[in-house]
């Protein structure tokens, strides 16, 4: 049940709202004091952590009994055991629970609480106050309806002026690198926006642009990239009208990043095969190039470069002379020279605090360069990762453990083992199919891999063809631009031979 529901218009009048807030706090304090010694469930609804903390402090000041606060942790699997383990045999006068919004599997916790609700009543003879936001309240009704029916609900909204202040401060903190977008702040941003919309408050200018940008960050956090890009773009429209290049640059970098994530996850040019589907991206690319503070980097396989010609005649590409394939724009990322490979290893190991003996670096680069005299990026990545996995830091350890070929073989062994013992044979076959008779790694679609697997279906279970199965467990072998066209002789041998020897061939 719900009581003391604030009138809708109280968002607007801050002075009147403060009076209602004091009244609600006083009523909650009275409800706590009158329930000491018996179980009583109280839901305190507040969408904003900062406001919630202020209210708790005020309650601790005015309440005649001691209020204990329990912050739920990710390690707490159930609400009942979290309270029980915190207080044991102790019987506090009142317990307030915060942090439910940070629980990733909240539905499981709420379902469990609903199932053992009688245990709350039997073993917790004190008022229990759960601080929840609107989203948690919806889940509580869905997953713990019986427990919710026991509760008295108190609502704590905040005034319009405070909502605006919250959004302005949140945007300022983000742009000053004092805020990370996380699971806790996202619902607060959405709630503030929705509360402002419900209040009839009209947002304009910089405030609206900042709100839209924050909504884009929220959508991006939840991997809703299309929505994120749309919010970013709406924010960008305002800053263009003000000719504020700094703000335009900030917005465009975030849009660029979102577009990059979308392209990377979907292999943009591979999935969007029709020119009309790619037009929006190309138009956006042209807009970015016209903001001098923004640098755009596209990482493409050689066999995809010709797609860029589709945008070459766009008016916005005049800034690069409508010549996107010129030497001033197009740069080849090929193999590393031995000297460059050593510098890269030095920088990577310094950043990872993983120091390698200089003699080991010399020997490893010599092995990787081989007769070609160049180091392939994918091989450097694989060997380097295995060195770190096995904690090989000296030349003696490197020579003792089998050098480059053995490291590559063990790396592939680990990939196959991660697929599960029942899938070892299927993984070997997939590795075999990811190369051709010439020893190169041509790009193959999922459909092509499934087609090529058909002759081997009598030897392997059907599970590798399921969505999210083995194909997705070998991303470093599929769609990696660095790996395109490189020789992979250690993968090519008849899969019937099986085992790590076949993978290392």
Fold and architecture overview:
This protein has 505 residues and is mainly α. Helix content is 53%, strand content 5%. Helix 1 (14-33) crosses helix 2, helix 11 (225-241) runs antiparallel to helix 12 (245-266) and helix 17 packs across helix 19 (403-418). The N and C termini lie far apart (70 Å).
Provide the descriptors you would attach to this structure in a database record.
mainly alpha; 505 residues; 5-stranded parallel β-sheet; 5% strand
What is the residue-mean pLDDT, rounded to a whole number?
A: 80
CA-CA gap between termini? 70 Å
Estimated helix fraction: 40-55%
Secondary structure class reads mainly alpha
Please write the string of helix (H) and strand (E) elements. Answer: HEHEHEHHEHHEHHHHHHHHHHHHHHH
Strand order of the largest sheet: 2-3-4-1-5
Which term fits the overall shape? Answer: globular
Strand content: 5-15%
Radius of gyration: 30 Å
Q: What is the count of DSSP helices, taking H or I runs of 4+ residues?
A: 22
Low-confidence stretches: 1-14, 463-490, 493-505
- Count the E strands: 5
The major pleated sheet works out as: 5 strands, parallel
Question: How are the SSEs ordered, and which strands pair?
Answer:
Blueprint (H helix, E strand, L loop, with lengths): L13 H20 L6 E6 L3 H14 L4 E5 L7 H9 L6 E5 L7 H10 L1 H7 L3 E6 L1 H10 L1 H5 L2 E4 L4 H16 L9 H15 L5 H17 L3 H17 L3 H22 L1 H4 L3 H15 L48 H14 L6 H12 L7 H14 L4 H6 L2 H16 L5 H10 L12 H8 L45 H6 L1
Parallel strand pairs: 1-4, 1-5, 2-3, 3-4
Helix pairs in contact: 1-2, 4-6, 8-9, 8-10, 9-10, 10-11, 11-12, 15-16, 17-19
């Amino acid at each position: 049940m719900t009581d003391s529901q604030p009138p809708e218009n109280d968002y607007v009048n801050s002075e009147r709202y403060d009076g209602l807030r004091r009244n609600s706090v006083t009523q909650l304090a009275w409800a706590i004091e009158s329930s000491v010694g018996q179980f009583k469930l109280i839901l305190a609804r507040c969408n904003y952590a900062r406001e919630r903390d202020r209210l708790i402090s005020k309650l601790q000041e005015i309440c005649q009994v001691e209020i204990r606060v329990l912050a739920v942790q990710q390690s707490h699997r159930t609400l009942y055991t979290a309270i029980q383990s915190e207080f044991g045999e102790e019987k506090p006068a009142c317990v307030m629970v915060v942090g439910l919004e940070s629980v990733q599997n909240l539905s499981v916790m709420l379902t469990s609480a609903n199932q053992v609700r009688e245990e709350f009543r039997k073993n917790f003879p004190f008022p229990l106050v759960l601080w929840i936001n609107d989203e948690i309240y919806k889940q509580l009704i869905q997953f713990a309806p019986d427990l919710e029916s026991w509760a008295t609900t108190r609502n704590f909204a905040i005034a319009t002026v405070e909502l605006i202040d919250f959004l302005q401060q949140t945007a300022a903190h983000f742009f000053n690198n004092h805020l990370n977008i996380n699971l806790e702040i996202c619902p607060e941003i959405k709630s503030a926006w929705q509360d402002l919309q419900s209040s009839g408050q009209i947002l304009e200018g910089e405030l609206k642009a900042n709100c839209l940008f924050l909504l884009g960050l929220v959508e991006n956090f939840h991997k809703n990239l299309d929505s994120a890009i749309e919010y970013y773009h709406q924010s960008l429209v305002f800053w263009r009208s003000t000719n504020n290049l700094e703000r335009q640059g900030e917005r465009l970098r975030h849009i660029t990043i979102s577009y990059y994530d979308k392209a990377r996850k979907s292999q943009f040019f591979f999935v969007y095969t029709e020119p009309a589907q790619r037009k929006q991206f190309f138009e956006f690319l042209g807009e970015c190039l016209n903001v001098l503070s923004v640098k755009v980097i596209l990482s493409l396989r050689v066999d995809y470069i010709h797609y860029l010609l589709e945008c070459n005649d766009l008016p916005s590409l005049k800034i690069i002379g409508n010549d996107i394939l010129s030497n001033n724009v197009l740069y080849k990322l090929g193999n590393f020279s031995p000297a460059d490979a050593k510098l890269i290893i030095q920088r990577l190991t310094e950043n990872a605090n993983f120091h390698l003996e200089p003699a080991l670096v010399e020997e490893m680069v010599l092995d990787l360069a081989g007769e070609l005299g160049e180091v392939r990026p994918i091989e450097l990545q694989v060997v380097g990762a295995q060195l770190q996995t096995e904690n090989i830091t000296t030349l003696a350890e490197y020579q003792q453990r089998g050098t480059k070929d053995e490291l590559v073989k063990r790396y592939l062994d680990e990939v196959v083992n991660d697929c599960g013992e029942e899938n070892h044979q299927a993984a070997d076959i997939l590795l075999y199919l990811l190369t051709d008779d010439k020893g190169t790694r041509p790009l193959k679609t999922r459909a092509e891999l499934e087609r090529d697997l058909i002759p081997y279906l009598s030897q392997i279970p059907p599970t590798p063809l399921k969505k999210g199965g083995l194909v997705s467990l070998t991303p470093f072998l599929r769609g990696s631009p660095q790996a395109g066209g490189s020789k992979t002789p250690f993968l090519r041998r008849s899969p019937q031979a099986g085992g790590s020897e076949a993978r290392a061939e």
